[in-house]
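Re: that chain you flagged

S.,

Sorry for the slow reply, it's been a week of failed gels. I finally had a moment to sit down with the sequence you sent. For the record, here it is as I used it:
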Amino acid sequence: MELNQVTLPVSNMADAVQFYLKLGFTQIVDAPQYARFSCPDGTSTFSLSLESDTFENHSVIYFEHEALDELCEDLAQKGIVFEQAPTEQPYLWKEAIIKDPSGNKIKLYWAGENRLNPPWKVEKRA
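Prediction finished late last night. Pasting the structure tokens below so you have them in one place:
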């Protein structure tokens, strides 16, 4: 199996779409209640779904970029506000944290080889 997409709830579609376009994603579906984006690299996509009720989303979406520091500097110049600048983590990833206009938490990160092969890797199967 391959992960196709993740869908995030949003309270204002226009604001959310502009935010993700500013991050560098390409919008591939544009509907009043739904938007879908392709990532700049690879074949992954993600989407937004307009919610009329109040919601709390505790999920975190991760986007990996090798030149993380440069990406974050570029995004800051475009007005993206960071809750956390790129910071080395004890689990061997470097992460920055932002939130979209609906409060969805996004981590921009670089893990390199440690993403799939950390020193503590196990391989359990059913």
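What I noticed first: Residues 13-23 form the longest helix (11 residues).

Talk soon,
D.
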